[in-house]
Amino acid sequence: MSRAVRLVPPGVRALRGYDRRWLGRDVGAGVVLTALLVPQGMAYADLAGLPPITGLYTSITCLLGYAVFGPSRILVLGPDSSLGPVIAATVLPLVVAGGDPGRAVALASVLALLVGVVMVVAGWAGLGFVADLLSKPTMVGYLNGLALTILVGQLPELLGFSVDADGLVGEVAGSVQGVAGGEVVPAAAAVGIGGVVLVLALQRWLPKVPSVLVMVVLAIAATTLFDLGDRGVGLVGELPRGFPPLTLPSVGWSDLAPLAGGALAIALVALADTVSTASAFAERTGQEVRGNQEMAGIGVANVAAGLFQGFPVSTSASRTAVAERAGARSQLTGVTGAVLILLMILLLPGLFRDLPDAALAAVVVTAALSLADLPAVVRLWHQRRVEFGLSLAAFAGVALLGVLPGIGIAVGLSILNVFRHAWRPYQTTLGRVDGVPGYHDVRSYPAAQLLPGLVIVRFDAPLFFANAKTFRDAVVALARTEPPPRWIVVAAEPVTDVDTTAADVLFDLDRLLDARGQDLVFAELKDPVRAKIDRYGLDRAIEPQHFFPTVDAAVEAFRARTGARWSDETRPAPDPAVLPRPAAPLPAPPTAPVTPRGEHPG
Predict the structure, then answer these.
(1) Cα distance between residue 44 and residue 154, in whole Å
(2) Which CATH code fits 426-562?
(3) Is residue 48 within 8 Å of residue 91, measured between CB atoms?
(4) Is the dihedral of CA 59, 62, 65, 69 positive or negative?
(5) From the record, what ranges are coiled-coil (predicted)?
(6) Is 107 in contact with 91 (CB distance < 8 Å)?
């Protein structure tokens, strides 16, 4: 692709290959999508602590921005239930007492601009891989905690009253006190609980029916028929007419630091959500996921939202699924939805005047239920208890400490899990199995044969500062077995790197084994790793004849040198994972020169 073509936004390039036969499907899907975008946009704005109209402003601008700069033909962006609590946790503490809505909107808009800048810069720098910082178990725990937080936070609004409390425990206590104190508005509770039941029932048994739209229409009808506004039910009221002008939101310098922290957290969650959603739908449509372009497209969409009194956005799996089922073929579907929402604001601002707040809470609650994944937690319990614990810790972090600390905990746990695997990797010894070519794990083949005087060890990780001592202890433990082996062959194919700390350990280990008359031998070492070893000077400490291209070559060289033959009697090979660590270090050669750490002779 030429440089000139790369400078053209993906949406503009897509127009060149647009098939006119798609037009009817795209417009029709846009109409269907609008029925979901409007109530969800207002509901998620309320979840973020912002006026409902900002959800519509956000939906319009992000859809248009992504249509021009987004690479996917099918993804739908907009306000998202997983971001609402994060936005609220970032913005609301900065709003002065009295809850000035204008300041809250300005802060949320600056937050969207910061998210956009982070995403665009990260996409330009090729940092799409950071989505991998959230592992699946920790993401499951985070989303489960987020779902519980949303459910508890929306319960009072679902029942028609409000709670002024911070944190999950405070909101639970406030909700219990409100219910016990008779603050529940029966009409609002009927609308809210009935709305949840209706949406879930339609999604279960009539999935093609726009459940949210049906519930919203019925709630507005109930307001008109039963005068719910006079029965204590809060209503959305008439929306402001018109669309806000292009503005650069203004906030104090002291607000930027907390907003920047929230922006990083939102960018990470939005990226992880986008990559997973894009991958799922790309498999169905035959498209290729371009992570860095996705980041740039979502970044531009957030910038557009921030310039028109909007708040941060992400992709939505539910809205994308609705668009796909409705026949969407391109981003013209999103453009159609944006135009229809804009026309509604300009021409019909009173359309949702009689919509109960409890109905918006029902929209949020059903979205929160879709975030929770309890079967995945059960599966982790049965499959891998450690990852179940990680998921549970991420859940507890969000539920007890809040969504922003919860994101940090989820990322930290994911990184620690990676570090744990690298620090204590799988290690075993190999033996020969009759009828099976090659050399195999003695745990899988307990009757594997050994060659007397030879041990083959496999360490399934790169060697670096954190696990070098683990590797050394395993090899030293093998060297102390009885009868002591003459060669310890490292099947090094899984060793993808050796850092300088590990090189020092290998140098000392080779000297220790030499003092015992034992040899450290490497087989199947990758060329880039061998080049690093040579650069570190280890080729002058470990004899070149102790490097072999294959394990077979090492075994045959040992047999040729010693005359060893395969034992007729099979016995379990020594397992470095269960051998005791040496009580004392092996003696160094009495005549060995003293070499400072990090330096090698020669």
Answers:
(1) 11
(2) 3.30.750.24
(3) yes
(4) negative
(5) none
(6) yes
Tokens describing residue 567: 């034992």
Domain ranges of the chain: 19-349+357-416, 426-562
Residue 314 is inside which H or E element, if any? strand 314-315
Phi, psi of 189 (to 5 degrees): -60, -40
Distance between CA atoms of residues 455 and 217, nearest Å? 74
- What does the alpha-carbon distance between residue 163 and residue 177 come to, in Å, rounded to a whole number? 9
Nearest C-alpha neighbor of 271 from the set 411, 429, 92, 74: 411
Measured between alpha carbons, how far is 325 from 327 in angstroms, rounded to an integer?
5
The two three-digit tokens of residue 331, written as one number: 């981003």
The residue with tokens 């990226």 is: 271
Q: For residue 570, give the nearest of 457, 432, 478 by alpha carbon.
A: 432
For the record, the structure tokens of 446 come out as 């307990």
* Per-residue pLDDT reduced to its tens digit, 577-602: 444 444 344 444 333 333 333 333 33
d(CA 300, CA 306): 10
Position 302, amino acid: N
Q: Which two tokens stand for residue 53?
A: 């109209």
Contact 233, 223 (CB under 8 A): yes
Sign of CA dihedral 64, 70, 75, 79: negative
**Would you say 461 and 421 are in contact if contact means Cβ atoms under 8 Å apart?**
yes
**pLDDT tens digits along 43-53:** 999 999 999 99
What is the rounded distance in angstroms from the CA atom of residue 255 to the CA atom of residue 266?
16
Strand bridging mode 454-459 / 427-433: antiparallel
Residues 119 and 77 sit within 8 Å (Cβ to Cβ): no
pLDDT digits (tens, 9 = 90+) for 275-316: 777 777 766 666 666 778 888 999 999 999 999 999 999 988
pLDDT of residue 574: 52
Instruction: Write the CA distances from 299 to 107, 124, 257, integer angstroms.
Output: 17, 11, 19
* Burial environment of residue 594 by CB neighbours within 10 A (0 to 12, 13 to 18, 19 or more): exposed
